[in-house]
Write a structure and sequence with these properties.
D-Amino Acid Oxidase, Chain A, domain 2, single chain, FAD/NAD(P)-binding domain, 40% helix, eight-stranded mixed β-sheet, 31% strand, alpha+beta, 14 helices
Length: 405
């Protein structure tokens, strides 16, 4: 076992959350080693068609971080969200102008965001990236010793703190943290790109059907991201459809709101499950992002929640380091106390939405109809819904602190 401390923090996972965390601490005196299973060239050659939705709160945070300017040209603004249920009377539109904000959200290509986050830390003197590296084992003490495999060789590194930002190291995480809450929604997410004859929309659509939840979010020009979470039987049926049958199927679900469907591309499906650790810190170890909470995609909360997590924990690390005595056990304990309320409420919120709106129950449908009508006619209620979706209710102070620095 090594007694010498090599780094202040070892970070496991160089995905969106891990890179966001590092960007908050770049150009500080905090020494960080980040383990990445990918090769360095991955961030230049990464060619994934997926898009991700950032809330307006996340946009403000990334702007203050200094990386939003170059990303803005690739984004599509979402100024309105039209919410409805198929075969049920009543719908509503939540709008950015109700909350007097610039936008409800921004859809951006995943590869653009990932590349920018990576390039922004590449030249930081306090951050070392261990490419093609995977953690093999962890010995937790006042000094943490991590054994990892790089280029088929085993090495050891030590640190004062260890943070997991990816759920890929499941066996190691299980040994360090209490059992997590798991729920199988018995649903698959069907995700694809849809091309229509309607150009440059600023409105996203959320539609509850008898078999699932449909989200259609505008990209650039006449392109949209379609996400449909539905039961195994229906998703199996969809996966067997031909291209022309797919167009007819989704046109029937969407209606004419997005225009006529011209083409459907890059259709994939994946199972939907809730994974959530109620206690996401353990002394000088911590879980962030997907390692701490994997949510249903219905409200687009997962990464946006992680951005706010990263802002809070790095703010606290900076405060402690300025005093010259970093006690990560105290930092992580305080961080969990500060963040637990929001995390738990977002988990419960997305879990409720993902289960309640499914099915053909008459009483449930009447309730949804009344709720949509209530939102449409009550601006105060509509604003509360917007603030919940954007994380504004929990993040005003976080953003205020960041702006005042």
């Amino acid at each position: 076992m090594k007694n010498k401390v090599d780094e202040d923090i070892i970070l496991v996972g160089a995905g969106l959350t891990g890179l966001t965390f590092c960007n908050f601490l770049r150009e500080t005196d905090i020494k960080i080693a980040i383990f990445d299973v990918n090769p360095e060239e991955f961030y230049n050659t990464f060619d994934d068609n997926r898009h991700i939705v950032l809330s307006n709160t996340s946009k403000i945070i990334l702007s203050n971080m200094g990386i939003w300017g170059e990303l803005e040209n690739y984004c599509t603004e979402i100024k309105n969200i039209h919410i409805s249920k198929k075969h049920v009377f009543g719908n509503t539109i939540v709008s950015a102008k109700d909350e007097n904000i610039e936008s409800l959200g921004y859809q951006i290509p995943l590869k653009r965001l990932l590349n920018k986050l990576y390039q922004s830390i590449k030249l930081s003197k306090n951050i070392r990236v261990y490419s093609r590296s995977e953690v093999a084992s962890v010995i937790q003490d006042d000094i943490i010793n991590v054994k990892f495999i790089r280029n088929k060789k085993e090495e050891t590194i030590s640190s004062r703190a260890l943070i997991f930002t990816s759920g890929s190291q499941l066996n190691i995480v299980k040994d360090l943290f209490q059992p997590k809450i798991q729920k199988d929604y018995k649903q698959n997410a069907i995700v694809c790109e849809v091309l229509t004859d309607l150009h440059d929309s600023i409105t996203a659509f959320e539609r509850f059907t008898d078999d699932g939840i449909l989200g259609v979010i505008p990209r650039k020009k006449n392109s949209w991201t379609l996400i449909y979470s539905t039961n195994f039987k229906e998703s199996g049926y969809i996966n067997e459809l031909s291209k022309s049958e797919l167009k007819d199927y989704f046109q029937n679900l969407i209606g004419s709101k997005c225009g006529g469907i011209i083409d459907i591309k890059n259709l994939v499906s994946y199972p939907l499950k809730l994974n959530f650790y109620e206690n996401f810190t353990n002394k000088n170890t911590c879980l962030l992002g997907d390692a701490a909470h994997t949510l249903h995609p219905i409200a687009g909360q997962s990464f946006n929640l992680s951005v706010r997590d990263c802002l809070e924990i790095t703010k606290m690390i900076k405060q402690y380091s300025s005093k010259g005595n970093i006690n990560f056990s105290h930092i992580f304990s305080d961080y969990e106390n500060n963040r637990k309320k929001e995390v738990q409420r977002i988990v419960k919120f997305t879990d409720f939405l993902s289960t309640f709106v499914h099915g053909r129950n008459i009483v449930k449908n009447k309730f949804i109809s009344l709720f949509l009508l209530a939102i449409d006619s009550n601006k105060t209620l509509r604003i509360d819904v917007i603030r919940y979706l954007l994380g504004v209710n929990f993040s005003d102070k976080l953003i205020s602190d960041m702006k005042n620095k």
